[in-house]
Amino acid sequence: MADAIIFDDGGSTRIKQLGHKLDDLLDNSKDFAPGPFNKLRISCVDEAGVAGPPTGGGGLFPITMVLNDTFKIFSGDHRLEGRIVDRTPGGTATDCQITVTGVNNIDPIIEARHSKGQRRYIVSNAPSIAKVEVNAQGPVQTFPIPAGTIYTVVILSKT
Questions:
Q1: Residue 88: how many other CB atoms lie within 10 Å
Q2: What is the pTM of this model?
Q3: Which of 9, 80, 87, 144 could pair covalently with 73 via S-S, beta carbons 3.0-4.6 A apart?
C-alpha cells in the first residue's frame, strides 16, 4: 500500500510522503508520488485544538478520487495541484502528479528538509492554505478554510 501524501501549512505550505523522495519538486516544481491513491480528506484545526472540515465540507469526506481527478491548494500566490494519473501503459495504477506553480509573477521557492529518513518539501514563500478546490467526478467543489484556523491538512491516501 502507498504511503499517504500530506499537504499542510505549518508556517509555509509543505508536502510530504513518508518513505519517498520527491526531489523533482526542487528542480522542476513537478514530481510523481507513487500510489495507489483514491481518497482525499481536508481537516482544519482552530486555536482551541478542535479539528473539523473546511467551510462547505461537512459530511463530504473522504472524497473518492479516480483517474484524472484533480485538487488544487491555494496558498497566497502559489498553487499546489495534484492529479491522479496512470503512469503504467494499460495499467490501473493511480499515482499523484504534484505540480507547484506561482501566480502574479511570484515563483515558488521550494526547499527540502531531511530528518531520520523522512523528507518534506516546503514552499517557503507560501503562506497558509486559504482554500482547496476539488474536481472529482462532477463540478468543482470549493472548500474555503474557516477564519480562526491555525492549521490545515490535506491528505491523499488509499483508504
A1: 10
A2: 0.94
A3: 80
Residue 28 backbone phi and psi in degrees, to 5: -115, -5
Q: Which of 116, 136, 133 is nearest to 55 (CA)?
A: 133
Q: Rounded distance, CA 58 to CA 34, Å?
A: 29
Beta bridge partners of 127: none
Nearest CA-CA partner of 77 in 124, 41, 19? 124
Do β-strands 141-144 and 95-102 pair in parallel, antiparallel, or remain unpaired? Answer: unpaired
Terminal alpha carbon distance of the chain:
10
Nearest to 78 by CA among 98, 103, 110, 97: 103
pLDDT in tens, 72-122: 999 999 999 999 999 877 666 789 999 999 999 999 999 999 988 889 999
In angstroms, the CA 127 to CA 103 distance is 13
Alpha-helical (H) ranges within 6-154 are: 24-28
The SS3 assignment for 26 reads helix
- Mean pLDDT, residues 133-137: 91
Q: How far apart are CA 75 and CA 102, in angstroms?
A: 10
